[in-house]
Design goal:
The protein is built from 12 helices and 15 strands. By secondary structure, it is of the alpha+beta class.
Length: 460
């Protein structure tokens, strides 16, 4: 029996989840509703459901689920769900009158996905003003990271307004593997591995020494504790979401002129937003050490294969100086990652029981080393459509984890750069952070238009 086991980078995302922090990513899309409006102006929600269902049936990754294993059966397994029905993953709701779409959607996203069926959900939202409707696509981090999640969400949409989705029933899926099947396959693989076992070679010893150096480097990243702030230590059931939008081409031009990357601009803007938020809350921002976890893709396949821990320098009042410091730091971290240096994801190379203990430690104590998460995902450069309805806006939503109450996600889409600040519901002044982000971006864009002599020099 051929089985596709979960990779460790997928499995650890199941261990991170907690009661109020299901490890789920999401895309909030706002669409032109005109193609779906009836003669009376009402949104034809059943037709939208049908259009989404026919697209979902033709996407293999949307039909697969995890078969969770017992001790002795090996890693969990990916398998097509024999009972898959896309209608089970499509729901509809109406935005309450007067509700803020971003905040309301964030509280819909946090509803846990059932772990015994394909790990996604799409929700059609009626009740928006201006002949628009929204679509919330939620994916568990076990099934996809940010890049793969955007691609998965895009598989429910069209590349042009005239596109016609594939029709027809998907192939019949075989029965899920039984626990007896899993145990038998695992036993055979263990026996085969023992037969192939050889004494350690010089290459094996070299790899072992390299791995030890990587663990040493990773440990160095986690030694320094971050500052305690007025932000909540525990994450509750409620959520808030603030959104900042910027013209993508102008930001890219600013980055080029200032000698930094788009991701550096994002991190420096986040630092500015946090400085505004924390100062307003009474924190002594000039004495704070604030660190973020930033995913970095270092391999062509799999989920994110590296993590950078970046100090955000909120104590620095000058946005351009803050940008220079962050650019210098990320350049060093990237060189180390691409050279095979260690990072906190080295836990993925440990034996399964040890890796799980490591993840439990990170869940409990990680917040003393990391204050927030920031991720930047490239999205489609051209507009996406649903049966002729254009997606006008696309907002990514990053998950929270217990004891880390803020997550920032950025997505480029059709010339727009959308940044969402996702936070525990008790942070009622979250808009201050979003305003600080926008102000920092404005400083960077303005600086890029000044003479070269007045711009910050690129770090060596």
């Amino acid at each position: 029996m051929a089985l596709t086991r979960l990779r460790m980078d997928e499995l650890v995302n199941a261990w991170v989840a907690d009661q109020y922090t299901p490890f789920q990513i999401a895309l909030l899309g706002v669409f032109d509703a005109t193609p779906f409006l009836g003669p009376d102006g009402a949104l034809d929600v059943p037709r939208i459901r049908r259009e989404l269902a026919v697209r979902a049936r033709s996407v293999a990754v949307l039909r697969r689920r995890v078969v969770w294993t017992w001790p002795g059966e090996g890693m969990p397994v990916w398998a097509d769900d024999p009972s898959f029905d896309p209608e089970d993953h499509l729901v509809a709701a109406t935005l309450p009158r007067g509700a803020d779409l971003a905040d309301w959607a964030a509280n819909r996203i946090v509803r846990p996905l059932p772990m015994d069926r394909p790990l996604w959900r799409a929700e059609i939202i009626d009740g928006l003003p201006g002949q628009r409707f929204a679509l919330i696509i939620v994916v568990h981090h076990v099934a996809a990271d940010g890049r793969a999640g955007v691609a998965l969400a895009g598989s429910l949409l069209d590349r042009s307004p005239e596109a016609v989705p594939l029709s027809g029933a998907p192939p019949t899926a075989p029965a899920l593997p039984s626990h007896r099947d899993l145990l038998r396959v695992r036993r055979h693989r263990v026996v085969a591995a023992l037969r192939r076992a050889r004494p350690p070679t010089a290459e094996g010893l070299r790899r072992f020494r390299q791995l030890m150096r990587q663990f040493r480097d990773a440990g160095a990243d986690l030694r320094t504790r971050t500052s305690e702030t007025s932000l909540p230590r525990l994450v509750g059931p409620g959520r808030r979401l603030a959104v900042v939008r910027q013209p993508l081409d102008e930001l890219r031009g600013a980055g080029h002129a200032l000698g930094v990357t788009l991701n550096d601009l994002l991190l420096a803007a986040v630092a500015g937003g946090l400085r505004e938020l924390l100062a307003a809350r009474g924190d002594d921002v000039d004495q704070l050490t604030i660190r973020t976890s930033v995913p970095a893709a270092t391999a062509p396949v799999g989920q994110v294969s590296g993590i950078m821990l970046v100090d955000l320098h909120v104590a620095e009042p000058d946005p351009l100086r803050r940008l220079t410091l962050i650019n210098a730091q990320t350049a060093v971290l990237k060189r180390r990652l691409y050279a095979g240096g260690g990072d906190v994801t080295e836990v993925l190379h440990l034996p399964l029981p040890v890796a799980r203990i490591g993840m439990r430690w990170m869940r409990r104590f990680g917040a003393t080393r990391v204050n927030l998460f920031v991720t930047d995902v490239p999205g489609p450069p051209a507009p996406l459509w649903l049966a002729g309805a254009r997606m006008l806006e696309a907002v990514p939503v990053a998950p929270l984890v217990q004891r880390v109450s803020i997550g920032v996600a950025a997505l480029s889409y059709a010339g727009d750069f959308a940044v969402s600040v996702h936070a525990d519901g008790s942070i009622t002044d979250l808009q201050l952070c979003a305003d600080g982000l926008a102000d920092s971006f404005a400083v960077f864009r303005a600086a890029a238009c000044r003479p070269v002599s007045s711009q910050p020099s690129e770090p060596r």
